[in-house]
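Memo to structure team: turn this sequence into structure tokens by end of day. - J.P.
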Amino acid sequence: MKTRILGMAIGLGALWAWSPGCSQPKPECNVGTASAYPYIAKFIPQGTDCAAITGDYVGMQVYNPASADNTPDLSSKQVALQTGTAGDYLHNAIELDDTSVAYSIGTFSAVEPDDSNMCSVATLTPAHMVLPLVPGEGGGGGGTPAPAQVPVDVEYRWSNLQIYVTPANLGNQAEADLTFADAEADCTANYHVVMLWPAVSCQELDYFRSIGPDPLNEPCDPCDPDPALCEVGCNPAEDSETCEDDGDCCEILGTCRPFPALCDGEPDPQLPYELPAGSGISPDLRVVCDPTLLHCVLDGDAIQRPDG
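Reply from structure team:
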């Protein structure tokens, strides 16, 4: 189940909302840190012969590279970028090619944002993930078992990364161009990618219970509930102590429908959300609930400039 991101993001959202304006010193180039939460990125096709990617999580971190004496070089700043899909390949692979690198690295053109509040990275190193075929084992019925791992050979080539940085909106928006190549499918796709930090789910939730005939083997589908298999709007307080053994627990699950109220700054204390604070997204930004990604995304195909 996708859940809404709170915690540290709320605190940072409050910081972004407060700014005494021109009295603030100019910040250094920064990003919404991946050690807290990722960006949610929507992919805008610019011409493709691959199956279109609609979105992904993107994690970014900034750091000073090492100088000649192995101390941080404060005159330079770099950014590392990795998609959630590349990270999944890295962590879930049964076997991984030794040359695989899940992240891209680039150097900012300057340590501080330019006069338009942009921090720019012209090019980044490619991320290339290679997973070999791992045949399946066992099987039955005389058929060939499915592979334990399908072959993967994908490359992410990022360029023209722009990050909007002001004291009030400290790296919570980014955009870039991406060329995605899939060697197994023999295709290449180009995208313009627009990113918002933090990633916040806006999927509607409800209570569901599998009701059989065998709840363990035929669980209800909350995105397309069958009345014969799925009770909608059940009460978890009525669950018996043995519900997990029977497979008929009343659970909070996503409905695969958008719930735009989760993208605003207002609390959503009602069940099943029980969220005592707003989304944590900067109130300076116009956001919408994307019905495909089921996440709050920037309203538009480019970085917004709320600070001028």
